[in-house]
TrEMBL record:
Protein name: Glutamate racemase
Native species: Tissierella simiarum
UniProt cross-references to NCBIfam families, sorted A to Z: glut_race
Enzyme Commission numbers on file: 5.1.1.3
MF GO annotations: glutamate racemase activity
Database matches in Pfam families: Asp_Glu_race
Pathway as given in its UniProt record: Cell wall biogenesis; peptidoglycan biosynthesis
Protein's job: Provides the (R)-glutamate required for cell wall biosynthesis.
UniProt lineage: Bacteria, Bacillati, Bacillota, Tissierellia, Tissierellales
Top-level class of the enzyme under EC nomenclature: isomerase
HAMAP family for the chain: Glu_racemase (MF_00258)
Catalytic reaction list: L-glutamate = D-glutamate
Amino acid sequence: MQIGFFDSGIGGITVLHDTLKILPYEDYIYYADTLNVPYGSKSKDEVKKYIFDAAEFIVQKGVKALVIACNTATSVAIEDLRIKYSIPIIGMEPAVKPAVEKNENINKRVLVTATALTLKEEKLRNLITKLDNEHIVDLLPLPELVGFAEKFDFSEETVLPYLKEQLLEYDLNKYETIVLGCTHFSFYKDMFRKLLPSNVDIIDGNMGTVKNLKRTLEEIASLNEGSGKITFYNSGIEVQDENKLRKYSELFKRLDEINY
């Protein structure tokens, strides 16, 4: 049986990339909701409908687990999905906990970047309230990064000026950690590094999600059933066009090249 991966677009490939390192002998479905991306600027009700439509499609393929490889989709719908479906459903969470714990004793701040919808959702707000006793967490929406990624635009000429402008009001020397709270953002980790002081860590929740998936599959005794094959779907249509498949392959190569 396959493992399903879902994201509003290509961001979840950063999670699948890490998954292949840990679980290379599984088969995967990757579903990108390319007709409706981006989610972060849409209403919660609208996004929830898209998520449930995609989840139903993936579950009907007979997957043994479903990874919601999208922070926005997780924050909007993960609990309702777990009520509806009996298979394990693994979600994403911005890596606020490790960032805050790391910074507790060094009097530095944490900057959490994500989509606007993720940042205003109760799930994240409750997490920050629970963990941020010293009020060291700042929030920064970076919606244009999703658009750049969906256009396969990874050029420094486009992205660096945008990031510089968004980070301009922050004294980056006051920060120890920046959290990439949207899976799309991890494609730009190398560009964040160019703009940040060398001591600032850049972290995301991807590997925590992968470890959770592996642990869950071990608990249900359902590991190592495939060969690493990935079947891609764009909003329910299987991707068979060679040019599109080559673009997906190039994304994995980019992640390897930036030492992700």
